[in-house]
Records
---
Amino acid sequence: MAPHGAPREAPTEAPTEAPTEAPTEAKRSRSEQRKLRSRDAARCRRSQETEVFYELAHALPLPRRVATHLDKAAIIRLTLSYLRVRHLLAPEPEDSPGDSPGDSPGDSPEDSPEDSLDQFYPQVLGGFILVLSEEGDIIYLSENVSAHIGITQLELLGQSLYEFLHPCDQEELRDLLTARSAFTSDADHGFL
């Protein structure tokens, strides 16, 4: 009986296991489908993010060859620096906020005679131009900075000047920046 009973037990176990395996396989496939959908959604979000960074990089006032080689952190850093400089140089609105110079589509920075003279300032000064915020962040540098200190303009923009100073000199810069900010008549700008 034992040899005859053994084969009977195997078929009785198989039908009971088959229904329990089917839901497990269905759970696995649903889980895999969710993972696949999640992966696709993340890929789509990354693609949209990359497009936004691409557009932002090409909106910056940089040569196209430079803008195409920026990483995301550099794009954000340079955009913040550009916005700070623009805020610093923006004229105070007299009538309405939308009437400031440069807002009309026909105005371009290259058309201004002042901007054509700006390229000669670094040559006349024999150095480079550096604009700092009150916190010591570099918000503007002339392009010729690399000729003087060996670090490119793009690497420095948006960085804190304290990162490049000797610790002994940091306190002196802090004193200069705080003394200057005490005499700043326009507290809204917050830049030197």
---
Amino acid sequence: MKRVIYIARMFVVVSAIWLMGVVPCLAADAGQDHLGKWSYTDEIRKFADPMTENLLQMINQDNYGKFSKDFSQKMKDVIPESEYKKIRDDIQTKFGSYASKEFVSLEIRETYLTVYYKVTFSQSEKPVLVRSVFVKENNKVRVGGFWLSPLSYTGNNGEQ
């Protein structure tokens, strides 16, 4: 009987030692997968950041030709120069001039991806959420959508 209790205790000790050694290794492996996803995000940002920066800068400079240079054909159809002027004037009136952007996140779908930025403008007290949508057209990455909306935080922020 004592031998059975001794074997059971040894099993518990060996199991505990094994868990202490294996669990950190599994966590390290999971961390490596996480790093792989982040490097994929970095690859996406290599084209998304400059294309979004161009859109925002060209709104400041009122240059439709450069603003629309990366548009998909559908975006060119939806936002011709006459519509761009209205959109630009609305952005300038509501938010002012573009100042800076900060990457927030991205979302990958089967036929498109969306990159989110927190953007500051000269006349806006709160940041603005910019969503840039990218599609592949004729083997090139193109802007397939572009939205700006005031960024509001959920929950109680202490203000009444």
---
Amino acid sequence: MPAENSTETPSAANGADTQVTRLSVNINAETAAKLRWYKENKGISITETIRRAVALLDLVERESASGNEVLLKSRDGKSVRQLWLV
């Protein structure tokens, strides 16, 4: 189970006050490698990588909860697959 440090500090990002929460999680080597690959491929921080992953998860969960299907379509349009989260 991930440990959460409840350290929240005000931060002035883009002139807006935001709360920052530091989290400590345990992940396997495969997941860590995927995060590092995405970080390096996109030229972003690990923090931004995690933000994007959580935003995508949130989008899929909200759409599914609303009764919508999340579909992946091949570039040529010949193949469509439905994305399911378990």
---
Amino acid sequence: MFKSIICVLVLLTFVTLTEVDKSEMDYRDPNKVSIGTSVIPPNDFTVVHKYAEKFVIQSYHGMSAETVYQTMDKENYFILDVRENDAYCAGHIKDAVNIPFHTIMQTSSIDQYPQDRVILTFCYTGHEASQATAILNLLGYEAYTIQFSATAWRDTTSVNVWGGSKPQDIYGGNFPMEQC
């Protein structure tokens, strides 16, 4: 039910916040969709449906902070920090790009997302990052949330959160962060 609601909200956001330029795209062919200045026309969700179905079938879209930290030197991740600029400047992952959550669907933001790299989303606790991950996957990107985001990346104290039927402790990795 939650994923269905997210899909509908993303589709509505997608339709209302983007520009349409049919002249530059064949929107019926998912391999030819141009993300950014050209998008799917409002009444044709064929491509979005394809990516939404793929997203819902794939059961997990997250990576632990530890896995990211251990692999970031050899992988070419695009780290998208969706927190507000002041939080980003107070401490962010090396080479992360700051695009606040409320602006991720703007054309100027979409134009920055690489189509040939894995995108990792990062926020305060993982909630907004998860929403950004869903949106990016619906647009055809390969995106994953850094689980518990800043909480798991930097904090050294444990945080008790509910996961499923039992609470789980999240111990931050105290991994390095840069400042503006």
